[in-house]
Model the fold of this input.
Amino acid sequence: MAADRILYHLNEVFSPKDKGRPLRGEEMNQTTILKDAYIAIKDGKILKVGEGDVPAELIDEYTVMEDLTGKVATPGLIDCHTHLVYGGSREHEFSKKLNGMSYLDILAEGGGILSTQKATREADFDTLYDKTKNLLEHMMVHGVTTVEAKSGYGLYWDTEKRQMEVVKALDKDLPVDLISTFMAAHAIPEENKDNPDDFIDEVIGMLPQVKAENLAEFVDIFCEKGVFTAKQSEKLLRAAKDMGFKTRIHADEIESIGGSKVAAEVGTVSAEHLMMITDEDIKGLAEAHVIGNLLPATTFSLIEDTYAPARKMLDAGMAITLTTDSNPGSCPTANLQFAMQLGCLYMRLTPVEVYNAVTINAAYSVDRAKTIGSFDEGKRADITVFDAKNLDYTMYFFATNLASRVYKDGKLIV
Ligand code: NIG
Ligand code: FE
Done:
């Protein structure tokens, strides 16, 4: 069968193995790196990847041949944890952070998430749409073809709904794919300061509407000191699971208060952050097969020293991903490559572990591994091409956008 398009003479193609489940532990350091390789695309899907000369039977007079001599290609990068849709920005808090004020103290005085809540409430649909579109365009330019997007700057229904509607609209309007997560339990609204349990009940009360209007696939909660307790988190996530949602939890980001235990007990798809996770909880997540979504750019941007113990997680047999956590407070960036480089530099992950984290494992984290995350025949032809001669170079030469061509469903989008 002839291909519609063939990318050829690629110096290296990173081709993850899809084992029908996320790669765990040392599997994450295994992959196939094809040399002098080609990728053949038919009807927007992967037809074949291979090394050396392109087989003659793949080419006919309609095949577009693209010579990418000396470049590197990977499956399109997947950013599986972002807070994408919000009003305003928080550079007015930047100097507080630089002067040593902590993230939770800024939140406790009504700043942080609560300040973005106010700005988001005041922003209409079009404002949020344009702002988010701009952010997504930056992400695509950096090689990202799929993005998970959380609500959570409305807290109350009207704005939460607006955020999720923006995600839905942009998923339709832009080539990048979006996976929506409902996260009204992102902060305790001022009005509920003294009765957070009531707010959790309110959020549980929103779930049927999220489901009925098909506004989100996942439900997430911020389990943290001064935000939601493990007990409240468990209550919400169990209710969400019973209603057919997939679940995630922000756990052990700043303090370890039991979020990872909840993840293991409820059986969430992933647990996010995990900077402060205990050895015992690592074991628990490994046994429960909860994916660790790790966010090193957040540690970096919070000016903290403690990165999530990725190596310990791999030694315990966990599956991990790396993501930006893109948000206006703890991690204002759109550059997944930078988070990946921090994964190498501060978590001591190998480039192969990092690329497995943001391709095949991230595909499992957003429940899309049947269609993306590797170059198996029939998967969608989402491809990121780097202006680099090998995979290692893309991690070594840091904080510079090396993505030079990005394909979604076989079409060039960047
Ligand atoms: O993952 N920790 C909670 N949520 C985000 C931060 C959101 C914000 O500060 O606006 C995070 O770091
Ligand atoms: Fe987050």
Summary: The chain has two domains: 5-75+374-412, 78-365. Residues 81, 83, 250, 272, 325 surround fe (iii) ion (ligand 2) (CB under 6 Å). The first helix runs from residue 94 to 98.
